[in-house]
Amino acid sequence: MNKMKLKPPVVAAIVVAGIVIASILYFALSPKAPEEKKDKGAVRPALTVTTVVPKQASLPMKLSANGNITAWQEASIGAEAGGLRIAQVLVNVGDRVKQGQVLATLAGETVRAEAAQTRATLAEAEAAAAEAANNAQRARTLQNTGALSASQINQYITAEKTAQAKVEAARALVQAQQARVGQTDIRSPDNGIISARTATAGAVIAPGVELFRLIRQGRLEWRAEVTATELGRLTTGTTALITAASGARLSGRVRTIAPTVDPQTRAALVYVDVTPLPGTGNALAGMFARGEFDLGASPALTLPQSAVAVRDGFSYVYRVNADNRVSQLKVQTGRLVGDQFEITSGLPADARIVANGAGFLNDGDLVRVTDALPLPGASAPVAPAAPASTAKR
For 137-151, 273-287, 295-309, which range has the lowest pLDDT when averaged over its residues? Predict the structure, then answer.
């Protein structure tokens, strides 16, 4: 078998072609190598953020409590006259009544007849008293003549006094019967709202049985339950804002505080006079209600709510350092008013804090800082820090 031999011109052409291909590859790939190396060594910012500084603010102090809305006072209305039949019931539950208004009437024929009888007895007693008085007067005129003995004269005078006493007794009986006649009209003892009614037309009642229950003056109160540790923060006159289960809102003012604490619950009752706010609905006695007592205001260090990240039940903020890297700070939060969180501990007052996106950062991340987020009431905005040199491209 003959071996194929390449001619010199062919060998030269192959060598030249290899050199050209190698040159093309070299010039095509060599410019990108420095850029790739540079890209691998650069650190890109994790997030573009704005910063805020903590602000000193005066935040309101509130004390929350739960309780029931009840009647300020309730009056139990019954009949003084017993053994009479209810002739007519004039009001129903929910009716507003005035003091002295007739709520129900009793059948009073028997009572009026007895009253007429007592008036006749009084007239008879008065006639007998008049005759006894005349006899006593004649006896006195004959006292010095000796026509009558001293014993007889004393009898006439005694008869006069006895007759007068009978008149007084008969007059008292008439007054009692007149009062009994008046009791056939069951009247309201005060202005208010009828909250319960057991009176039924035709029923014969016993004295003292409750027929109606009245919320006196229509006044309600909120009986808030406050723990013994919080009780000292309240005083008479402290204002409150209450929200009933129906959604109705009421303004309140502490009237009095119970003098004792329940030994079982360690809570005391705070009695709050309430006034319904117009256009918020109706609050009724027996409703559950939540409320907040206004305890004034106190200074606090605050941050926007968006600057606080909650992780594993703890609150964190991210401080921007001079090299634009963030440090994670564990803080204690307090009151939340609007979008402002009170920071009670763990935060330097002059720290630059990431305002938004804290939940996407980790300790040590590099960030790009834009213009600082202005806070209401802040004296001056915080100047943005220069980007780190390693982030420049």
Answer: 137-151
DSSP 197-228: E---TT-B--TT-EEEEEEETT-EEEEEEEEH
* 65 phi and psi angles, rounded to 5 deg: -155, 160
On whether the CB atoms of residues 199 and 212 are closer than 8 A, the answer is yes
Are 136 and 238 within one domain?
Answer: no
Write the pLDDT tens digit of every residue in 92-133: 999 999 999 999 999 888 888 888 888 999 898 889 888 888
Q: At 240, which CATH number? A: 2.40.30.170
Residue 388 to residue 243: CA distance in whole angstroms: 53
What residues contact residue 318 under an 8 Å CB cut-off, 6+ apart? Answer: 309, 326, 327, 328, 329, 353, 354, 358, 361, 363
Helix (H) or strand (E) holding 78: strand 74-78
Answering whether pTM is above 0.85, one says no
Domain closes at, from 277, 297, 317:
297
Confidence at 16, pLDDT banded by 50, 70, 90 = low
